[in-house]
Specification:
With 222 residues, this protein is mostly helical. Helix 7 runs antiparallel to helix 8 and helix 9 crosses helix 11. The chain starts with 5 loop residues before the first helix and ends in a 7-residue tail after the last helix.
Length: 222
Amino acid sequence: RPMKNSKEYAQRLQRLYRELKRVHPKAERPTYDDPAEALICGIIGERLSEGATSRALREIRTAFVDWNDLRVARVEEIAETLGANSSVGRDVATALTAALRGIFDEQHRISLAVLKKLGKRPAKQGLEKLPGVSRFVVNYCMLTSMQAHAVPLTPTMIEYLKHNEIIAPDAEEEDIDGFVTRQIPAKGAYEFYALLRRESESPKVGKKKHAARRANGKRKHQ
């Protein structure tokens, strides 16, 4: 569905992108040989901050022999390894084991390399069928491992855009996803994702941010 006042919000989003590029250092794009690894990083990264995700991945690689070892681990054991607070850790661990079991049932190993041989649409459909996989995870996997045009948005990023009036406050996740993807060109998709993520997770969150304030054309003293 089209967003109300979409032209105004489109301008704010473009201004935000320009401002984010100005205030944040350039984003380093990750590479994943196997989409399964991108999927795992996406599941963890949706619920944890960028810093916490990096720490969690290091801990997981130390604690488990391989992704198959992670698949058969107990949820409690994975949650403890993640070091997140109990409810978030359990949610991540539950989603991880569900997705890994789904991959194993389909492929008889923890690999999604087969997706690379498919077109982008069938690959996306394959990801969407996996249990424990959200819109964010699918988009993150498609963007980083399939070089598709997608802009993954965590709940924190969506909240930031709404709070700062860059998008309509009553917009649904599906509409936001479509709107942002239309406004941000494919070549800038990863950069926009990384910069917006950094901005939305910075310690100043909750206050009107410098970048967002400029983007929606509001002055500090208003």
